[in-house]
Amino acid sequence: MDIKQLEETFKEVSKTLGWSVDKRIALAVTTFYLTQDSGFRKKEHEEAAEAIKKNEGWASPLRYYMFHIASAFLALQGDPENGLKRLNAKQLELNEAGFRKSPYTYLAALLMEDTGEADRAKELYDQMKQHHKFLTSNEDVPYAVLLGRREGAAEERAATMNAYYRELREHGFSIGNDLQWLSQLMTFNSPVYDPEMVGRVLATREFLQNEKIKIRPPQYPILGLLAAAKASGRTLAQIVEHTRQLENSKLFKWYKDVAFSTAVQFGMKDIIETREVSDITFSTSLEMLMQAQQAAMMASINAAVISSSANNGSN
Q: Which of 61, 76, 224, 251 has its CB 3.0 to 4.6 Å from that of 103, i.e. a possible disulfide?
């Protein structure tokens, strides 16, 4: 991880996105581009943003909640006009499968690859709801899409998620959406319950806590990401080192809460790059998982910014 490159790219991204865009969003967009090995694509990002402005009405989540998330994804795909059409077609497919239109169906559509994924996602979502009726909501749709395309029966995967959720509760994890997302990510490699997966999550949490990295509920999904990637002790040590470097940099002076998740994204990039050729299928899967986590991170930051703005406006 090159701090200087990160800082320089952040300046370029911030200038392009404009003074009115919260710096945390610019930071997430910066990380997204750098971990995709592309560097910031200013021209393509501006073209994608303009395509959204030209084709989407003011009520569209793509115009506010998802604006720079979608712009970054479309910029990397090339041909933003057609990319936007495909995105809307996928979002419509999710609606037709039974998901209510929301920012999360657009986020899920960004992750979709093939037709038919919407129906598989809905099947898994309904099975998840059988176990957690009130916890399972629109926010789970992106993970339902991501995991719905994985091999295995939806019923078994949902049951395994529930088993992981219950077991982690016994180990001091707080109940709620964050724990549910962690339990979902734990089934990424297999729908079959695996006690070793629980062990990896617990060991990862312990390692990070021993290094004074606070693991609050919002960080729970990151534990699932690292466990699914089978992050080694060496990788975890690098993530800790990078977290401290970021926390001490000028760029993260006011955004220390984002330092850890940013360091994890670069750690995942390293894991993918060091995989052997024989593991190319697994590496491709990890790239998809990392992209999903990046999108979720940007959405989370966006939501926090919107909530903060609304609260400040009401004071």
A: 61
Q: Residues near 114 by Cβ (< 8 Å), separated by ≥ 6?
A: 149
Query: Is the overall model pTM greater than 0.85, yes or no?
Result: yes
95 CB-near residues (< 8 Å, 6+ apart): 101, 105
Question: Angle at the Cα of 187 (from 175 to 98), degrees rounded to 5?
Answer: 80
Give yes or no for a contact between 269 and 289, defined as CB atoms under 8 angstroms apart: no
Q: Count the neighbouring beta carbons within 10 Å of the beta carbon of residue 314.
A: 6
- Separation between Cα atoms, residue 223 and residue 169, nearest integer Å: 14
pLDDT tens sequence for the chain (315 residues) = 788 999 999 999 999 999 888 888 899 899 999 998 778 999 999 999 999 999 999 889 998 878 998 999 999 988 899 999 999 999 999 999 999 999 899 999 998 987 789 999 999 999 999 999 999 999 999 999 999 989 999 999 999 999 999 999 999 999 999 999 999 999 999 999 999 999 999 999 999 999 999 999 989 999 999 999 999 999 999 999 999 999 999 889 888 888 999 999 999 888 888 764 446 677 777 888 888 778 777 777 777 776 666 566 544
User: Three-class SS string for 50-110?
Assistant: HHHHHHCCCCCHHHCCCHHHHHHHHHHHCCHHHHHHHHHHHHHHHHHHCCCCCHHHHHHHH
Residue 178 token pair? 């964050």
Residue 287 tokens read as 């790239």
Q: Where are the domains of the chain?
A: 150-291
- 256: amino acid identity, one letter: K
3-state secondary structure of 274: coil
